[in-house]
């Protein structure tokens, strides 16, 4: 029966209003029913363990081989042993085929890895040679400094006539900007730079541990910052001050001709009066130590690269990689799957 036939005693206008009201009530009931159903699904997703435990009919069978027990709440297995048995069966069934497929076609990534290892070994040999050269320069410099200190001091001042007769020009300091005389420029700039260098800190949480290396980093522990100083030991103005120079100590700087050619002679002026070779020992030692640090840093980088390449090569044919990845060889006659560009 239609809606109008259910209400024959009403007027047509009232019949239409009654039909509309009934339709609205039906729509409200449908919306409420959908909301309740959606809420039940949301509760079931949020608390699956509670629903499974309340309703034993929703419990699934364990996926373990030959097991007929129901699963644990929130798991696919009834126990850990069933999961381990299923994983072992899958490995025994799938792994031999994957190993055969892996051995049939050559691995291009392994070939690239071998080439990378060859390049890394060559660079390591070059870095070792550079380190040995820097160590030899270190010992040679110490021998030159010792020979220079054994020279006799020239007290007549004949070798300092050029500085006395030269014009007293002034230059500006690169650190503080003050005008200074050319004769004492090196001495003033070195002291001025040390003042500004003490304001900055270069530290690390760990001390330096390098076998066979001497006199590289300062490594003085600062209890306030709880770090070790990482400046060069010979250049650290904060923890290593220059010793007081006696009056009878010779400069001993090796003299050169045309900037780089050694003459075999040494500066015989007293070290206090020599402004041309101020702190030459410290600067030469710092230069040699910097070469040694660069060679050691290069060796460390190459060692990290080698470890990355080797781990990638070992993991490429590992159990997890063979189980998760597969190379499909469509043509059994071609063993090399690389795409060749036609000439």
UniProtKB/TrEMBL annotation:
It is found in: Nucleus. Residues 32-56 are annotated as: Disordered. Keywords: DNA-binding, Metal-binding, Nucleus, Transcription, Transcription regulation, Zinc, Zinc-finger. It comes from the Eukaryota. Residues 87-323 form the CpG binding protein C-terminal domain. Its main location: nucleus. This is CXXC-type zinc finger protein 1.
